[in-house]
Amino acid sequence: MSPRFVVGDRVRVREAWPPGHLRTPAYIRGKRGIVCQHVGDFGNPETLAYGGDGQPRQPLYRVHFPQASVWPDYRGSAADSLEVEIYQHWLDPDQHWLYPEKGAT
Amino acid sequence: MTRDHGHHDMGGQPAGPVDQAEHLYALWEKRVDALLVLLSDKKRRIIGVDELRRGIESLPADAYERMSYYERWIASITANLVEKGVLDQDEIDARVAGLRVRDEARP
User: Fold this and answer.
1) How confident is the prediction along chain A (105 residues), in pLDDT tens digits per residue?
2) Closest residue in chain A to residue B76, using alpha carbons only
C-alpha cells in the first residue's frame, strides 16, 4: 500500500464503528487534523490480531490535532495539541478543507 | 450511527486522579512479561502483540475492571495458547489444581 498522504496534508479520521481489534481510538474518529509524520509501513493490526498476515502493510502517520478541536469542553491553552498515530485506511482527505463551499460533513 | 467501541477504549472518559507512584513488579508479573517475550520472539512467533491486545480487549468489561495489568496479559496469553492448540484448557486446569494442592501443603 503506497503512502497516500504527505506531511502537511489535512485529513479527517474515518467516523466508523466496526467490531474487532482497532488501533484508532474512539475519541479521535471523525476529527480533523494535519499529517505531521509518515512513521513507516506496518502490518495491519486489524488482521494480525486474528492470526492473519497483516498484508497489505499500511502506512502509519502521526497526525496533529488541536486539543480544542478534539474535546468540546477543553479548558487548556488554545495552543495545546495532540498527536495520534493513525493507519492510512482510517484517514480521508479533509474535503471540508479542500472544498469549503460544500460544507463540513 | 451507534458509537460502539470496546470497553478498553476509554480515552477521554472521566477517570479521576491518576496514581503516579512508582511500584515494584511481583515475581509472577515479571514471569508473565518474560513468557510473552519468549512466545513472540523471532524463533517462535506464537503470539503477536496485536493478538495479545485483542485477547485483552475481548475480556468482559467486569473482568477487565477487576484484573490488574498483568492479570489481563496472562488471561490473554492463556486464551491465545488454547485457541492455537498449544495447550488445552483441561491441561491448564489440572496443572493449576496441582499447584494449589502443593501450595496448601506448605507449612
Assistant:
1) 899 999 999 999 999 999 999 999 999 999 999 999 999 999 999 999 999 999 999 999 999 999 999 998 999 999 999 999 999 999 999 977 655 555 444
2) A49
Q: In this predicted complex, what is the ipTM?
A: 0.88
Residue ranges per structural domain of chain A: 1-24+33-60
Give, as one character, the DSSP assignment of residue B67: S
Our count of domains for chain B comes to: 1
Cβ-based contacts of A21 with chain B (< 8 Å) = 50, 53-54, 57
DSSP string, A37-69: EEEEEE--HHHHTTT---PSPEEEEEEEEEHHH
> Does residue B64 sit within a domain?
yes
- Domain of residue B84 covers 27-105
Can you give the CATH number for the domain in which B98 is found? 1.10.472.20
Q: If you search the block for the grid coordinates 495479545, which residue do you land on?
A: B52
